[in-house]
Amino acid sequence: MTKAAPPQVGQLLREWRQRRRLSQLELSLRAQISSRHLSFVETGRSQPSSAMVLRLAEELDVPLRMRNQLLLAAGHAPVYTESSLDSPRMEAVRTAVRQVLEGHEPYPAAVVDRAWNIVDSNASIALFTDKVAPELLTPPANALRVTLHPDGLAPHIRNLGQWRAHLLGRLRRQIDASLDPVLSELHDELVAYPCHEREPEVEFPGPADIIVPLRLRHDGGELAFFSTVATFGTPLEVTTAELAIESFFPSDAATTAALANPTPLP
């Protein structure tokens, strides 16, 4: 059986352009090259320089990891390094992340990588993980799996259908933006988990809602949160570019008061 040839850089660039819904003319104007030159690159009649690959990738908002793949496909060396978060050169990044996590106490916060694996968290994240099966928390614990698995947080989420639809929608948008096969596999796993609540096709607010809330059963009542996501603004390294800090805030006065004296989930 003949092994399929790896895709050429022109083919990959065309796929990214089509995914971004740009014509050749629109992309060539943005990249300040002729549409004829771009056509030659996409069809393989012209081999782009590394500078040209990076210019087109910038205009197409291609993630750094995928920019390295484009460079390799064009016969050039990758330019964006990828380092373990615990490596010495990442000390400044680790320090910044720790400051954000600790400064967010007493509210939960966690840092995830591109595949939603939890790489760090603050002490208050225990509010979410106390009732999760231990095997789901074995590193690398995946935040989406921990949340939606039937042995995870899912049984404690009062609006599971709504929150599940929200998370899967975020994941689909991430897949659409990155074309990452790892995320596609994760999505296929998550949608197979059981959910006995209706999942809305479109997110719409309930009474007084301004943000999709996470509603948790707690001590005979409920805790309600909304979340924000922070990323590094000017990353030039793959690991840093793919980190996201998700911080949860109380969405009502009762949750704020409860977190002043936290108790485990029942």
From TrEMBL:
<dbReference type="Pfam" id="PF01381">
    <property type="entry name" value="HTH_3"/>
</dbReference>
<dbReference type="Pfam" id="PF17765">
    <property type="entry name" value="MLTR_LBD"/>
</dbReference>
<dbReference type="InterPro" id="IPR010982">
    <property type="entry name" value="Lambda_DNA-bd_dom_sf"/>
</dbReference>
<dbReference type="InterPro" id="IPR001387">
    <property type="entry name" value="Cro/C1-type_HTH"/>
</dbReference>
<protein>
    <submittedName>
        <fullName>Helix-turn-helix transcriptional regulator</fullName>
    </submittedName>
</protein>
<feature type="domain" description="HTH cro/C1-type">
    <location>
        <begin position="13"/>
        <end position="67"/>
    </location>
</feature>
<dbReference type="InterPro" id="IPR041413">
    <property type="entry name" value="MLTR_LBD"/>
</dbReference>
